[in-house]
Structure formats: C-alpha cells, structure tokens
Amino acid sequence: MNLLSTLSCLPLLIWLSSAGTSATNPLLSTSAKACGLIAQTISTNSAIFLPGSSEYASDVAHFALSAEQNSTCSVEVGTAADLRAIVKILGSTRAPFAVKGGGHNLNPGFSSTSGVQLSMIRFNNIVYHAKSQTVDIGSGLIWDDVYAALDAYNVSVVGGRATGVGVAGLLLGGGYSYKTNQYGLAVDSLTALEVVLPFGEVRTVTERSDPDLFFALRGGGNNFGIVTQFTMRTHAQGTVWGGSITYDGTRGDAVTNALLTYTTNNSDPRTGLQCTYATVSGESIVMVNLFYNGPTPPPGIFDSFLTIPSISTDIGSRSYLSLIQSANTNLTAGVRGLYNTISHTAVTRNLTSAMRNQTNFYSSLLSSSSLLLAGYVVEPFIPSAYLQGKSATAYPPNRLENIHPMNIYYAWTDPAFDDEMLRTSRTSATLLKSVATAEGILGSVLYPNYALVGTSVNDLYGKHTERLRDIKRRFDPLNVMGLTGGFKL
Known about the structure:
Layout: H1 3-8, H2 10-19, H3 26-41, E1 47-49, H4 54-60, E2 73-76, H5 80-93, E3 97-100, E4 116-119, E5 126-129, E6 134-138, H6 143-151, E7 155-156, H7 167-172, H8 180-183, E8 190-196, E9 202-205, H9 211-217, E10 226-233, E11 235-236, E12 240-248, H10 252-265, E13 271-280, E14 283-292, H11 303-306, E15 312-318, H12 320-326, E16 336-344, H13 349-365, E17 371-378, E18 404-412, H14 418-439, H15 458-461, H16 465-475
Parallel strand pairs: 2-4, 3-4
Antiparallel strand pairs: 1-2, 5-6, 6-10, 7-11, 8-9, 8-10, 12-14, 12-15, 13-14, 13-17, 16-18, 17-18
C-alpha cells in the first residue's frame, strides 16, 4: 500500500481500531480486525467502505430487503490477487464474511453478513472469443449485462430468465434457463472457472486440469472457493418469440388445461415456459411466461394459452435481452421475500389444483401479515434437457430424472412477520410434497437456488453429497468457506 492509499484509509483504520476494542462484541472485534487488515493490504484496484457511504449501501443491498444485513465493512474486490490476500486474512482471523454477486439470493446470510461483505461488482469483464465460441464473464455481472454485450456478435449463453439475476449465484446453484430444454442447465455450458481457493491460490479450473473441483463448482454452491470468472460456451442467437400473459384467476382452469396439454405433447427443445398461480394484494391471477428460440413457434405449441382471454398480453418477436427484461420480476424488488421449493417429475391436475388452493388459502391466512404476493411457479422441462450435459455436475445428481423445480415465492413488507412467512412456506411445501408423493411424481432432490434456508444438503445433492464433502475436505481443510453462509457441506 502506497502513502496516498495509507492516508486515505486513516479514518477507516481509526474507526475500525475503535470498534475492535469492544470486549462485549467479539464478533464485531473479529470483523473489525479483518476489515483493518484488508484496508492495509489491498491494492488501489480494490476499495473498502464503511456504513454511511453510498458505496457501502450499494454493496450490502439485495433484491429482497429481508436478505440484507449490516456488515462491519464492505470490500469491492478488484483483482484476483487482492482477493487471494483477503481470503488469507479471513482465514487467519476467522472473521465471518459473505460474497455478493448480483444480490438476488433471498436467504438471509447467504450473500450477506454482519462481518466482512465482499462485493464482486468490479469483476465486470466480458470477453468474447470468436474462434473458440466461448465468453469470459466476470462474477460480479448480472445476466442482462452479458446478453447485451453478446448481442453485437449474434450469440448468447444459457443464463438467467429474469432481469437483475446475478451470473455467479445462478451458475453456482446449477442454473435453469429458457434454453435449458435445448442446451441443458447453465452449468452444462461452463468450460472453465477462475477461482480463489480457500488457502489463497488462484487457479483456473477445467475438466482436464481439476476434474473433481470442476464437478463440484458446477452446482455445488459456495463451498469450494470464490469464483472470479466463468468461461461459457456460446450459441448462435437471433430473434426469439415470447413474453408474458396475465389472466384473471377465474381463468385458472383454462390455463391449467393449456399447461397440461403443453406438458403432455411438447417435445420441442426450443421451447420454455413458466406458469405462476398467484395472488397479488389478495387478487387471484395466473401468469404465464412463454419462450421460443426462434422468430415464431410452430403452430399448436402455445395456441391453447393464446386463445384464453387475458388481462394483459405482451407476446411477440424480439431480442433475447428484450424478452428477459419484459417480465415484471422487479415489481417486488426492495421488499421482504423468500423462496421455497419442492420438485416433481410430472405436471398433474391434482398437483396444480393443490398449488392453486395453497395460493388462495395462504393469501387469506396471511392477509393481515403484510403479504403482497404469494406465487407458486410450475417450470416444466422435457426429459432430454438433462441429457445435454456431457459430464457429471454437483447438481443434479441424477440426469435420468426429469425434475421440474417448483418455486414458492412470498413477498411481504413487515419484518415482524418474517418467522411466520418461513413457517408458512415450510408447511405449504410439506403439503405439496405429500400431494406429489401420492401422485408418484415427487422428485428426489431440490433445486439449490430455490431452496429455503435450513434445507439439508442431502436434499440438494443426493448421492453426490459424500463426494462433495470429500472434495470440500481436500480443498478447504480449515473450513474457511464455512465462515460464510449458504448450504454447508
């Protein structure tokens, strides 16, 4: 650190020194010590911020207000070398920390902390390699950035379906996409990852160089290090067709019939669909997002949805980025929220009826608990989607099982009802699980990116759990990554 950098950090170091003298809060003391050491160590490519600054506020902000925590300091990491030094400091001080990419994880403590908040926002490179048809993507980006940059080359990648979703979180959890039917999960397109390992080594991981670590990083969460860059295969991208349709809740039967027709008859890998049974401020609606990877879909695939009278329709040919940004997924940004999930292997009338009943029942039950939205999302995939991956990944453990991840989403405003929302979502998931079990369609594992805090890792990784634990022990024997939140092995 040069003299100018040292002088600029003096107010920070004085504050941290004062905070670190507290004998009544050892957590604050440990975190303050780590922040002070980081401030003295990082280069000018990185920066550290304290509460009260606009940068700090941005670094700790999340899509869901309930996922935010006030950290002791925030660090915008600018280089892998700085991150390596930071990881060593965190390991030696045992300070709790969190790593934030896009900030779209709804579980408190998964990308937020009361300790040291690491923001990856400065890892924002996007480099397209035409010869290899791959792209290097910084881990601090959101998918909107990636799609926009690649549009100039008429290519794209298998990535997020909603605006504002971070690259890193989606990929580390497996990653479903509108293109999953055609190309597999997002992790199936990964060819390399640059990662800072828990003992401080910067390593480029490929299937050839580190087959076990390559397996673990693709869906195994944040247990094995901090990824700074992802390299993905690209695919030719032209105009797509799709968008969203919103129906009044009284059209629920008709939409369900259309959904069952689609899931029974569709085998076109260029398709994608999400169907949400929801209540918004007590009003029942059904929302459908349709996708076809081409200018227009063949006749018959989506016709039964298009003929149902709707409240609003935004469907047409457009760019892929326009499609992603057309959905109203940010309507509940900045309020409290949670995801929960079950998985199922088929879409049935009984299961969809149970979802609709849950939506209406819990909307009424929670009407005095500041509930804004209760949504239950069906996401069907064709069986061949899981066969697109050419090698095993941490998630999913069984490529022969056609898992449909159901997303249960609650949004509310009053923090006094946080625990009630958690309890209710667990009760609801248990009831839906019993319906799927009776139907013989219960999936064997849960999608990590939808799973609620407290979910067992065995429920996420099944037969892969022990292999992942073994890899974790080899690459993180001191459990440095155990100092951050997430689904821990």
